[in-house]
Every structure is written in C-alpha cells, then in structure tokens.
Amino acid sequence: MKQKFNVITSTCVPLPMENVDTDQIIPARFLKATTREEKFFGDNLFRDWRYNADGTLNEQFVLNNPKYSGCILVAGKNFGSGSSREHAAWAIAGYGFRVVISSFFADIHKNNELNNFVLPVVVSEDFLAELFASIEADANTEVEVDLPNQKVTNKATGRSEHFDINGYKKHCLMNGLDDIDFLVENKQKTEQWEQANK
C-alpha cells in the first residue's frame, strides 16, 4: 500500500527467532494466488505458525496473543532469508506492519520490503536485545522510527540508534512513490536532459 512515511511511533510485535525465511513468512502454496490482494496475503502471514494443522488458532504464536499489537515487527537476526519471493513482503505489508526491525536482513527481502512501503530498520544486536527485553517487560513499550533523521528510539529506555537507508528509497518512502511514480514525477527533467544531450 502506498503511504507516505515520516515518523511512526507504535507498540511492537516481538518475534525473537533467528533465520526466519520467506517460506515461513508466506508458505509456498500461497504463491499460486492470482491476486495481490493485501488482505489475502496479510491473512496468511506466518500461516503455518499462526494455525494448527486442524485449522484452529495456535494460541502460543505471538500474532495470536492479544497483548501484542502495533505496526512494528521486531524480528531476530537474518530475517527474510531463503527464496526471493516478493510475496513475503506483500504479506508483511498486508498484515499492517509498516516497519520491521532486525539486526540483519537478507538483501533481496530487504529491498522487497522497501518496494512495498515497509521500512526495514537494521540495528545493532545489542540494541535489538534491549528492545526485546523492553517489550517482554512491558507489551506497551513504544518505539519511534524517524525516517527523516534515520533514527530509531526505544521509548522505554530512551536509547536511540541511527539506521542507514538508500537515499532514493528514502525519498520514495517519504513521498509515497513507487519506482514508476518516481519516473513520472521526473518526466520533465528526463525530457529536458534528452533535449540537452541530443
């Protein structure tokens, strides 16, 4: 979903598991879908963890725990490894997450998130561990993600870290632009350059 991104403050959903791969984010059987409907993919985010084999809710899984909510997913190291399926980013966005915080992302998945208006924030392992501890101590812990200043803050401790982002992707997120929107926005500049460089 195209949304302008500025500063987001939210409670978090903790997923302190390392090496979460794209098949766990969205199982392969859902890749045959003929729609990119956000609700469909969001409803099936972490499908095999959210539901038991008989289709009942797995009450032990964090997305089914009513004390955790918010538009920020805090995940363990090496999030989004495995296949390059963009469907994983569709599912994260479709569920309603706008930010994923981890100490390391698989490169392709990280770019897929950016292309789908989800901000992947890379923090130090120490900061991530502190964040998990804060959320465990109080599910109402809020995190502020400031894209213009590229800063993430644990509101429970006041600790902040700077995060990196590609300048082009930052511009697109802050202005709600996908790659095509960006080209259309700069059509006149492109035409002027072409005229000047004939």
Short key terms for the protein model shown above:
3-IsopropMal_deHydase_ssu; EC 4.2.1.33; globular; seven-stranded mixed β-sheet; leucine biosynthesis; amino-acid biosynthesis; alpha/beta; 198 residues; single chain; 3-isopropylmalate dehydratase small subunit
Shape: globular
What is the average per-residue confidence, as pLDDT, rounded to a whole number? Answer: 92
Radius of gyration using CA atoms only: 18 Å
- Taking the alpha carbons of the first and last residues, their distance comes to 38 Å
Extract low-pLDDT stretches. Answer: none
The helix-strand sequence is EHHHEHEHEHEEEHHH
The major pleated sheet works out as: 7 strands, mixed
The share of residues in helices is 25-40%
Determine the number of helices (DSSP H or I, runs of at least 4 residues): 9
Which structural class matches the secondary elements?
A: alpha/beta
Taken as a percent bin, the fraction of beta residues is 15-25%
Outline the structure in words.
The chain is α/β, with parallel strands linked by helices. Helix content is 36%, strand content 17%. The chain has nine helices and seven strands; from the N terminus they run βαααβαβαβαβββααα. It has helices spanning 22-25, 38-43, 47-50, 87-95, 107-115, 125-137, 167-175, 179-185, 187-196, and strands at residues 7-15, 72-75, 99-102, 119-122, 142-146, 151-154, 159-162. It has a seven-stranded mixed β-sheet with strand order 4-3-2-1-5-6-7. Strand 2, helix 4 (87-95) and strand 3 form a beta-alpha-beta unit. It is globular and about 65 Å long. The N and C termini lie far apart (38 Å). The mean pLDDT is 92.
